[in-house]
Amino acid sequence: MSELDIQIPNTFDPFAEANAEDSGAGSKEYVHIRIQQRNGRKSLTTVQGLKKQFSYNKILKDLKKEFCCNGTVVQDPELGQVIQLQGDQRKNVSTFLVQAGIVKKERIKIHGF
Hints:
alpha+beta; 5 strands; 26% helix
C-alpha cells in the first residue's frame, strides 16, 4: 500500500473559523439587530452587541422618540444588555445607529425574515 491509500479520519469543526475570528485582538464586534415574532402580527426588535461605553437608556430614549414606539433595556445573562423595541424597526434602527455615529454600517448584521 502506498501512503495515498491510507486516510486518517479528522474531525471537522464547521464553527472553527467563527471561533477563531472571535478570539484575537483584531476581531470584529458586530451589532446584531433581530426580529422576534410574538403573537399574530405583533413583533419585537432586539438590538445587541453595542459597546458598553454607550448609555443604553439614552439610546433607547432617542429610538423611542424617533420611531414612536415603546421599548426597554433587558439584562440577559449570556448576551448582556439588549434593547427591545415594539414592532419591526430593523431598518430604522440600523440607519439611526449609522447616522448617530454609534456604529459603522459594516458592523451591523440584520437578522430575520
